[in-house]
Specification:
By secondary structure, this protein is α/β, with parallel strands linked by helices. It is built from 16 helices and ten strands. The chain has two domains: 118 residues, Periplasmic binding protein-like II (D-Maltodextrin-Binding Protein, domain 2, 3-Layer(aba) Sandwich), CATH 3.40.190; 202 residues, D-Maltodextrin-Binding Protein, domain 2 (3-Layer(aba) Sandwich). The strands form three sheets. A five-stranded mixed beta sheet has the order 2-1-3-10-4, sandwiched between helices. Strands 8-5-9 form a three-stranded antiparallel beta sheet. A two-stranded parallel ribbon has the order 6-7. Its EC number is 3.13.1.3.
Length: 411
């Protein structure tokens, strides 16, 4: 996406712009005008894909422990974009049967609701990153009430193939912050900013990448404005405020000296406010779960092992995560993950957070079809993976002290 502005500071056609003025100048990307590309289906290989957020998968991409689990069963485990046949779309629409995704919450909700059936295998929640309202640092704005009658930006992807996950968290966060301060949308002006969002099968973006970390090392991802599309509009005064994520984007933006947060949902004790494209969700296709459950179990074994290691070695995990996530630096990353359970789970509270995100998407037209989150969740794979790991540990530990290791005792 472009973040260019002309000399007057007004957004150009390829960047943030008022929908009514810019939409005719930006091409909409649809299933009808786009050719998707995926590798031929082969159940002897499993693809994985991660978002740049807190997850065991983003630690494992450097450790390689999940790949070892797949080697044990003779299956290749590789990053989605390690071959030229796969474009970026499977990360967002899960159009590969043999793909496992660990990433932001909103795209897999949209997939399961409207595109194809999947299984929710586990989640990891960062329960204190609900979102902030950012304004210019030197503006005479210190409270949400000071935004009354002013403009708040709201991005709009013109790519209808994929879910507009960034806009969803913006809209959700804006409405929550207004409500927490006795305001409604009627008290402010919401200004839409469409952008093309069309890079997912751009030939320049399709050079094979062996590891997701490589993508970030090829660019200064902590300062890449493609991750913060509305920031130029705020800086140039086109809008007076924008939503941003607490503790990640927030600190990067404040470190410039140009912006400040006047509201922060992460400071409230109400855990239901903390659903900003999180919890991070692990999903696989229903066909994989039903026809090849051993592949799902192998993946979950890797996530449990890596998650436990990350919980015990938070500084080391932070060193790895800093390469791909959006905290300021390693120490800031450590503070961000210090109290996060890195082992994926399907706890009642986390499933309730998933349902909050799903209900918002349904009520605001981001998905067409409703579904039962409890039925989407598939805890049997996490349970089986944990049992197998415990069995393996039993055999290993007893085998070290006995002539012949006894059989494992968990069925």
């Amino acid at each position: 996406m472009s973040d260019k502005t002309d000399k007057s500071g007004e957004p150009t056609a390829g960047s943030a712009a008022d929908l009514s003025k810019a939409a005719p100048q930006i091409k909409e990307t649809t299933f009808e005008n786009t050719k998707l590309s995926t590798a031929p289906l082969d159940w002897n290989e499993v693809w994985y894909t991660n978002c740049v957020l807190i997850s065991a998968a983003n630690v494992d991409q450097d450790l390689g422990w999940t790949r070892e689990e797949f080697k044990k069963i003779g299956v290749k485990f590789a990053y989605l974009r390690s071959v030229g046949e796969n474009d970026w779309y499977p990360h967002y629409i899960h159009n590969l049967d043999n793909l496992i995704r660990f990433g932001g919450l909103f795209p897999p909700i949209a997939v399961h609701a409207d595109l194809r059936r999947t299984r929710l295998l586990g989640v990891t929640h960062a329960p204190h990153e609900g979102g902030c309202m950012m304004v210019r640092a030197r503006d005479d704005i210190y409270r949400m009430i000071d935004l009354k009658g002013k403009k708040i930006g709201l991005s709009k992807s013109l790519n209808t193939i994929k879910n507009d996950w960034w806009r969803i968290q913006e809209e959700q966060g804006i409405e929550l912050m207004l409500r927490m301060n006795g305001m409604t949308r009627e008290d402010v002006e919401i200004l839409e900013f469409p952008y093309a969002d069309d890079w997912y099968n751009d030939p320049e973006m399709l050079n094979p990448i062996e590891n997701p970390s490589e993508l970030q090392t090829m660019r200064d991802h902590k300062h890449d404005l493609s991750q913060r599309p509305l920031e130029p509009a705020l800086e140039t005064g086109v809008v007076d405020a924008i939503y941003t994520q607490s503790k990640v984007f927030q600190q990067l933006q404040e470190a410039t000296g140009k912006f400040k947060a006047i509201e922060d949902l992460s400071r409230y004790p109400d855990w239901t406010l903390q659903v900003a494209n999180i919890p991070a969700a692990i999903t696989c296709t229903e066909v994989m779960a039903e026809k090849h459950p051993e592949l799902v179990v192998a993946y979950m074994k890797g996530m449990i092992k890596v998650g436990r290691w990350a919980n015990e070695h938070k500084h080391a995990a932070a060193e790895i995560l800093d390469r791909t996530t959006l905290y300021l630096d390693v120490e800031h990353t450590y503070r961000g993950i210090e109290h996060i359970d890195m082992v994926p789970n399907l706890s009642p509270q986390n499933l309730a957070s998933v349902e909050i995100g799903k209900d918002f998407m349904l009520s605001h037209g981001y998905i067409k079809n409703d579904f039962d989150v409890q039925q989407w969740a598939a805890p049997e794979f996490l349970e089986q993976a944990a049992k197998e790991l415990l069995n393996e540990q039993w055999v290993k530990k007893t085998g070290e002290k006995l002539p012949k290791a006894p059989a494992a005792r968990i069925g």
